[in-house]
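Dear colleague,

Thank you for sharing your sequence with our group. We've completed the structure prediction you requested, and as agreed, I am returning the results in plain text so they can be pasted directly into your records. Please verify that the sequence below matches your submission; if there's any discrepancy, let me know and we will rerun it promptly.
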Amino acid sequence: MPLFPLFFMIVLVAIKESLWLVGLIGLVLTIKSWSFTSTRLVLAVLLVVMFIVNGQDYVDTTPIQTIDILDAKQNGDRIRYLATANQQELIVSATLDERQDLDYERIGRRCQVELTEKMVLPRVNRGGFDEARWMRTERLAGKFEVKEWGSCTDTPGFDAQGRRMRQAWMDRIERLPAKQALYIEALVLGEDRLMDQLTLDRFKKFGLLHAIVISGSHIAFLIFTILWILKKCRLTRERRAEFVLVLLPLYGWLTEWSAPVTRAVCVAFILLLYQRLGRRTDPLLVVAYVAAAQLAYSYTSLYDIGFQLTVGLTIFLLLSRKIWQKIKRPWNWLLISVWAQILTSLVLQMAEQTEVSPWSPLLNLVIGAWIEWIILPLSFLVGLLLFFPVTDTFMTLHERAVGVLDLALAQAEQLPVPTVAVHLLSLPLFLFVIIVVLIGWYVAERKWWGHLLPVCALLLGSVSMDLRTEERVTFLDVGQGDSTVIEKDGETFVIDTGGAFTLSQRPTLRPFDPGSQIVVPFLHTRAETVIDGLILTHADNDHIGGVIGLLKKIRVDTIYFGRYDNQDEKRHRLLEQIEATGTKVEFVKAGREIRPWLTVVAPDESEVEENDRSIVLLANVAEKRVLLTGDASIEQEEGWNLGPIDILKAGHHGSKTSTGLDLLHQTNPETVIISAGRNNRYGHPHKEVLERIGENRTIWRTDRDGMITCSSAGCEAMIK
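Please find the predicted structure tokens below.
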């Protein structure tokens, strides 16, 4: 079986990384796919040698004084560089100010710097970004902040010269309208630094991200287009193949040899070379050897979602050719897209991303074809013609094609049920679904109903997880802010959505929004796209800043405001935005039972201080009494008569103005939760509060422990 080299390398990586289940499965597949020839034995030995040489994690602790800058991405006043120092790649971030306008000009240059090292965080919320895993996958040695820049000079070498040429080309592209420049850079150079948050969300939502990055299909289209043009120029077949064989490595060099480009270029180069030599080879064998070589060169590629998707889907398509050949077009295309969606969902489960669109298969055919056959060739033409004084015809065509694409994406958002969420599966259920999908694949070659098995398995797995969901309260890590999720009696309530504070003087392409980027992904892991209630304790930005972002992705039955917290222009603007979404709004005060298990404790009258108008909630969840105090001050706490509780969320993120001794003595909580940001500028939690709480109580802090989940079995932190 031609997949032997890939399975063999997966076993080696699994042993190195102690991935014993992966290693066992890989070993079984390796034995099953084993076929001996002297050539394959030599290639296997070369893979092992490459793996041993490149598998060493080189660590150099020499202080960094000089960096070579490889790439950069700017977002508002912040810029993040990919750089090398001491033979290691690292991330270097900096803040731009009015006196410092150098940003992308540093690419391809060597700069003197003074750096401070920054903490690399693991995943802190379920469904959130795992920075530590990403850093390890990319084999980045660390994350640093620039304290001071020194002088910069051109980095010597062929690669650095290519980076400067590439940057000069992108400077020309970025003189075009932003949307046109975005697609040209993405499709021609594999660069997403102009991708705004709205466009990114739309492509992710409908499973179309693969269509705007350089992939195998893009390389194939480029090759066929060039061969067609050369044929029209009356070049012989041999000369055409030779021309493309020279062009492919140059294109790889110009696009910085990113992982997907390397895979696509290498596979295409080998297949074309075999064709030029008049020999035939199995495309599946070529894909397997290229993927195995990537693992041997960088073993952490096994963790990369892009590697898993592109290699896995390519192998699936090649192995299942018999299925598609029996079905007439375009139905086979649609069926392929459905299977690709299912397999993609399974891969994304491992990354805790569970949002999918039922429209994705159809949109991949329609919008994907528009990008592939219209925008991609026009992007290449416009990108190349920027160097020549030619007519604006192609520019106009490209602008209109991009406009049609944006309109189509906007219309797709208006489709009924644009997205659904599949529950994050437990390991046993995940393995069960994988097995059923493989069985369905086998059956589908013989019986039509085999195509239904994967869909049924995913739905069954998600429903099973829903039925097993226990009562719990989850305190999300939203930085310097609050967001709590309560799940009880089949209902889900969110209390506050966090918020982000920024001083950026430049517009941000991808602003941080905790509502859409933290709260929503967490809800999606619970298969939630509709929740029963959203309670906004008060109108400070660190509690309500993520509301609109959440409402764009989650439907809310009712939003609850404090009766006395809707008195100024800031709150009126928020209410207008909420009412524009069609969401029902209710105002509550002390004594209101939102649910039999969820009671409003305060406020019972208007207060001068905004924090003192916070909605205070007492919840009975998972056999525990939980008090959520918002930002209410000690003076307000003295008026509550609550009795003993089990879990107290400290007021105002651990500020000394809240969580007084009287409240602690009256309620005597076993556990105290503090929601605060890491290294926040307020110094929360204050030392006085920690001393009041004392050492006899369990303290959980989101700035140290990440997301905290409390159930009848107790509380558990995301960061172990």
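Summary note from our side: The chain has 26 helices and 22 strands.

Kind regards,
the structure core
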